[in-house]
RNA sequence: GCGCGGGUGGCGAAAUGGUAGACGCGCUAGUUUCAGGAGCUAGUGGGGUAAAACCUGUGUGAGUUCGACUCUCAUCCCGCGCACCA
């Protein structure tokens, strides 16, 4: 019987499901390993061949760990709340739940065909009330907590209330607190709660009708849909992520993530250490605080700049400048975020008419307003040092403000000197100091004189947590006398009400305003819902204990599974999900609900798989198509052609004619009797006719081939184009592998003793597979299988003692064929429960000098050498021996290069 | 501007400082099969040769080294991230 992947794959997929082969159970007697994929958002388009790349890698790793004896948790679920389903609902009137359920079913059937070892009993869906009960619970816990900077962790809000009542906290005295009304108390507590309501500038997207978080906006456009976003002041629910900035930053050091991803998070958190200084400004001598990282340049300050949104603008504008300032503010306000970004090179600004006093020099300097100063960062006001800051420089040049260099010998006639190097001059007590020293000296000076203080700023903002949307978790909050009040825990989950239409209500309120009786005990419930990242922030915890109705995760389950050992997913979540999850987890850790403060110990980012589009070239004005190699002789238009009509860049002419009516009578100019298509690497999308569906690959080649091929394509972390033409290679390998066992219906497997050569081939593979899988180098592992097959094929080896371990080795990559062969070899239990073959190094040691070998690290040989060594050629006997490097005379051999028969080179130390 | 990755055959790619291009695709030749497809054998960086020999070759230039795709410096290009962040 030939390798019949179709029946094999179906058979074992059902068998695994029936036998619950991959069900994970807590078992304290066994070592655990938790392998997690970033769960997908089930979109209407279904999976293309790029989506499963990471899933295949994690599945291989899971199965590998299981063979190594670990108790593996490998779950899957769906991130099923979110904008696209709701946009679709608005357009079609279909309930998002309906489309979401349908999309999930499609995803599931696509995933099932690939033969993943998921424990589907642990599936979670973020839109399931039994799941989002715990999202709402976590929100209430955050609402019920404050960040205690002394303990450096979140604590119950009642502890803060107790302090406010007795000793006061911050600028709130006990007298003020105790005299405050309920409403005032609520407002005050919002200043400290982890989940709080507050007014800030938000990213408002009119087309989507909702606010968005910073990571949901890119280049002034919404990430979902690409609609323009504008800044707007609104009162919103927010999460105090900024309180965790330092811990989120410090925690990175302990994580086994790639440097680039850590760097992205560091950039996003944006720590900057500097100084805050007070300048007395205007007639009223208003103290204005500025933030700077370069106090050393204080003698070079020639003006100040306020952000247009700064609260001080009004007070510092003198009557004579009022009209000009108003005009400028109107101009700024009119601009969308996108225009602002596009025009960053244009320098704009206006003079307030006021002057401030440099606290160190006493000098009077003009105060300007400009949009290059951001209200949201630092204090929204800066001291400008045009000589040593390029933005200040551009501004000074434009408005003819003085530029005073304060570093010896620098030339500021053409551009500013931003580097932190050189010796200070024109700077009073700082003169002669190196810049780096001067920064510290100036900081000390300013603090000692009481002019300012050291201050650390972060770019990381609190997360805006409300969305004016329907398809998300409702906030478990109602407004009692206008005071935001937590719903009692026993009322959770607060389920989404049915509504008839998904558009915002006529009065501009969120869609939930359309719900009948959206109240609790007669009080109105919150009408916005939570954002997409809410449900994905703790899903990895829920997998540990998905059916628990009393807790997000039980203590036992949490203490057993602890945290994710390996997390695989795309890099697009670097500054969104991966920040929020870490924040969320740290919060739960602070409050004692989980035992690890970091959720994902190791993280791998799989690359994207791009499409490979094919083109035909139509000669302009005709219905004649010219082959790619000849197109230069004609004037042509490039037309995307469906890649299913193309094989190895050769066009299926009949298929092409049948594809579209207008091509039915197409003519072709061929080269060597064939039409060669052009190609390009582009994103996979329907409009480019380059989408490859994994189902189709499973139909023609089988899931095992798909799995092997996706791994073989190249390094996991690298982005690469999908090119179906290489797939035959791995498919051939599987067919060859099958033929080691069967020739037609004849079983070839014999019981003989393996030879040393055969054992060598096997153990080379075992060693390579262990090494490569641990290093996530799956493409070279697949190569190693092929090499082993070549070697064993040349040896005509059909011995059980070799083939049986081969089946185990291959099973993480190609589980179906291996399961089939495993059972045919007489086993009754799954190959997934076998043990990984033990590696014996001595089998792989070379016993002839066929290859170059070295003595450094892995020792393969010792060499008998004469005591006197001649660089140009040494006669020596080389003996195979797996021992460590020996001495030659009193010198250590560091390396010896050997080619057949002679020593090429010797290195001594 | 700052930061992080990368540049190796026609293509995807391998190479602890030690025979560069493993493995696969594609291509070429041979062979097998009624055929479709597939299988098997050999070859395949470039130049050179009847075949060898030989010369050359990992973006570019320098350096360290007996020896560099690999390490260091400079430079050019590509990808990604962050960015009027003071």
Q: Could you explain the architecture of this structure?
A:
The protein has 909 residues and is of the alpha+beta class. It is 32% helix and 19% strand. The chain contains 27 helices and 38 strands. The strands form twelve sheets. Strands 10, 11, 12, 13, 14, 15 and 16 form a seven-stranded mixed beta sheet that branches. It binds one RNA strand of 86 nucleotides through helix 10, strand 11, strand 15, helix 14 and strand 31.
Q: Which SSEs are present, and which pair or pack?
A:
Elements: H1 5-19, E1 32-37, H2 52-67, E2 71-73, H3 83-92, H4 96-112, H5 129-143, E3 145-148, E4 153-156, H6 157-166, H7 174-179, H8 182-189, E5 195-205, E6 210-212, E7 217-218, E8 221-222, E9 230-239, H9 245-251, H10 259-269, E10 272-281, E11 286-292, E12 303-306, H11 312-316, H12 322-334, H13 337-342, E13 350-357, E14 364-369, E15 381-384, H14 390-399, H15 435-448, E16 452-457, E17 463-464, E18 477-480, E19 483-486, E20 519-520, E21 523-524, H16 532-536, H17 539-542, H18 555-561, E22 566-569, H19 577-590, E23 603-605, E24 609-619, E25 624-626, E26 636-641, E27 646-647, E28 650-651, H20 653-659, E29 667-669, E30 678-682, H21 694-700, H22 703-712, E31 720-721, H23 727-739, E32 742-743, E33 746-747, H24 756-774, H25 778-794, H26 800-810, H27 815-824, E34 861-864, E35 877-880, E36 887-888, E37 891-899, E38 902-908
Parallel strand pairs: 1-2, 1-22, 12-14, 22-23, 24-31, 25-29
Antiparallel strand pairs: 3-4, 5-6, 5-9, 7-8, 9-17, 10-11, 10-13, 10-16, 12-15, 13-14, 18-19, 20-21, 24-25, 24-26, 24-30, 27-28, 32-33, 34-35, 36-37, 37-38
Helix pairs in contact: 1-27, 3-4, 21-22, 22-23, 24-25, 24-26, 26-27
This protein binds one RNA strand of 86 nucleotides through helix 10, strand 11, strand 15, helix 14 and strand 31.
